[in-house]
Amino acid sequence: MPENQVRVHTHYLPPTTLIPNSPYPLLHYPALLPNPHPSHIHTLFTTNAWKTHWIYRYGATQKSHYHSSAHECMAVLTGTATIRFGAGDTNPTCTDDDLAASTHGPDHEAGGVEIQARAGDVFVVPAGVSHKTFDAKPQAEFALLTPGTGHGIEVAEGEGVEVGKVLEGVKLEGFTMIGSYPVGGEWDFCDGGEGEEKRRRAWGLPKPGSDPVLGMAGEGLCGLW
What we know:
Elements: E1 9-11, E2 26-29, H1 38-47, E3 50-58, E4 72-78, E5 80-85, H2 96-102, E6 113-118, E7 122-125, E8 131-137, E9 143-144, H3 163-168, E10 175-182, H4 196-204, H5 221-224
Antiparallel strand pairs: 1-2, 2-7, 3-9, 3-10, 4-7, 4-10, 5-6, 5-8
């Protein structure tokens, strides 16, 4: 558990027409990790039975989406951005230009919350809660920075390479986050309007046994979910 004082902001996000959201609150720990380092954060995740799946570098915007099959933790490594939680995009077939226009325009649902994300911030996102990252700075192209498909970190077989060592070699530039999910959880991608089955699935997922960063501490999800 980090030694600095823990601050946590809780956001209860009700269902919308497109997004199930969750009875559990979104948790935002601002500046929880003052010197975020991928391999150190991976060690925290592993200790607390969460599995590191990816490091992404974010571009100007992305589609709003949620995961119905897994709770998620995102820790900011570098840069700044705005993340909108809890509201879906209302133009599901939009182009990249449409996405850029919808960031501050009318092409998203009312409601939700927008949070300014900075290096060191941690978000624990319940299954069903949508999120959309935009206005990422420094500006860069969206990219998966870790080997694999984003569903776990691939390491070369037979070379004895550990995930932490792979993460140390990742070049971080732009706005980057590292993501993890409870061990055994696999994330899906839902952009809204999938219906009752996805809502039931998201709402029916059990509470994780520990917080990805704070472990069993009451300041984390163990005391807040």
